[in-house]
Amino acid sequence: MNANPVALKEWASAIQTLTEGKMIMLMRKGGIEEETRRFELKSPSFYLYPTYEHQRAELLKEPYRPLVGQTLEAGGADSAVISLNAYAEVAADLEVRDLNQLERLYPYHIWSEGLASERLRWKAKEPLHVLLLRVYVPEAPAIIQVRPEYSGCRSWIELESPPEAGNLRPVLGDEEFRIRKEEIISALGQ
């Protein structure tokens, strides 16, 4: 697999959940500093770049709250380097436009009901993108330098020195991923 030098910024706790196979989805509206002021899928495959600034334990469902502290201990927000331990391919980009649809997704993600509905309401005219991701992990995480241009509230960054993809192993087998993807699509009625 040839790795793309693009990375999607996401909470470290969400990335950990993806790499453990406990979830296959992310919800995006776009960052405050997005060029288009809304979320756009810049690439069908990308690294997942862990962020720490906005993740707070109370914004996760109860069983996942310890992940915030665990990820801060493992990497931290003030480090000069960051570990890229996940690569993803988008299997589906679904649009959610109302609370009823969003509530049907509750069993499939780690975020609190309040945070999920807040994401839907923010920029209310824009849909909430639900990305279903086939996630891969490398044999060893790639350690890269944190650069000033990677900061800020935006979804996508271009990695200055993208790591070699090396051997990537899918987190979930083909059949298990297919079943989980179809469950979510079916829950949305799509």
Portion of residues within helices:
10-25%
Determine the structural class based on helices, strands and strand pairing: alpha+beta
How many distinct helices?
Answer: 5
Q: How much is the average pLDDT?
A: 85
What is the gyration radius calculated from CA atoms? 16 Å
Describe the structure concisely.
This protein is of the alpha+beta class and 190 residues long. The protein contains five helices and nine strands.
Description:
The radius of gyration is 16 Å and the shape is globular. 25% of the residues lie in helices and 27% in strands. The chain has helices spanning 12-19, 66-74, 99-104, 113-121, 174-188; strands spanning 6-11, 25-28, 45-51, 81-84, 87-96, 128-138, 142-145, 156-158, 168-170. It contains 5 helices and 9 strands, in the order βαββαββααββββα. The strands form 2 sheets. Strands 1, 2, 3, 5, 6, 8 and 9 form a 7-stranded mixed beta sheet that branches. A two-stranded antiparallel ribbon has the order 4-7. It has 190 residues and is an alpha+beta fold.
Summarize the helices and strands and which ones pair or pack.
Elements: E1 6-11, H1 12-19, E2 25-28, E3 45-51, H2 66-74, E4 81-84, E5 87-96, H3 99-104, H4 113-121, E6 128-138, E7 142-145, E8 156-158, E9 168-170, H5 174-188
